[in-house]
Design goal:
This protein is an alpha/beta fold. It folds into two domains: 103 residues, NAD(P)-binding Rossmann-like Domain (Rossmann fold, 3-Layer(aba) Sandwich); 63 residues.
């Protein structure tokens, strides 16, 4: 499988199943897309901002829902494999993405895996084990959350610095050396993680030093 990032802004996600798995999927996608969850009953867990519809559709009913919503993604998360299969088949016929939440570790052509993610906007890291070891994904996510603290602030800072260095007329090799020095600076990371400033003074010191030494073409 090849990992990709997909923008669901303005799209619709259809979740079939209101158990804990359906709730987890709904929370994830409702942050960005219109998310509709259809199920005869719902768990006590949060479904985020998803729309909940209490209904137990049969195979024909599932097709009607897909025709009505035209979803970009269909999540099959019921305990009824026959209904899940009907939903997956109908989704593929309508060229929608399919996530079979009921088949961990099994993959179908064109299927979508929803990975564990660590997010510090605009930085996003995805972790997947092919559905074979969810506990490992959870463990790695927690470790990476600590490791990536401040990554979003670093990305924002580097975007500004790259523009400034380019507009100042510095040649590409020196720009790369200066930006690389900032990324590698533990002092800059520390300053960003404390949240004292979006642009710590130490970053400018690091850049000045890198420009003075000339840097190397990397």
């Amino acid at each position: 499988m090849i990992p990709l990032f997909h923008d669901f802004s303005g799209a619709t996600v259809f979740v079939l199943g209101g158990g804990p798995v359906g709730a987890r999927k709904a929370r994830r996608f409702s942050r960005e897309a219109r998310t509709v969850v259809v199920s005869p009953e719902f768990s006590d867990e949060s479904f985020g901002g998803a729309e909940l519809v209490r209904e137990a559709p049969d195979a024909d009913g599932v097709c009607e829902w897909l025709d009505r919503l035209e979803p970009a993604l269909v999540v099959c998360a019921t305990s009824d494999e026959e209904i899940n299969e009907a939903a997956a088949t109908a989704a593929r016929e309508r060229h929608a993405l399919v996530n079979r939440a009921d088949r961990s570790g099994e993959r179908e052509p064109g299927g979508v895996v929803v990975p564990a993610t660590v997010r510090d906007d605009p930085v996003v890291v995805a972790i997947a084990t092919g559905g074979t070891a969810p506990a490992l994904s959870k463990h790695l996510r927690k470790r990476l959350e600590r490791e990536l603290e401040g990554a979003g602030a670093m990305a924002a800072l580097l975007s500004v610095l790259r523009t400034e260095l380019r507009e100042a007329g510095h040649p590409p090799e020196r720009r790369r050396a200066a930006v690389g020095a900032v990324v590698e600076s533990s002092a800059v990371w520390k300053a960003l993680r404390t949240g004292g400033s979006k642009r710590p003074e130490v970053a400018d010191d690091v850049i000045e030093s890198a420009l003075e030494t000339g840097g190397e073409d990397g």
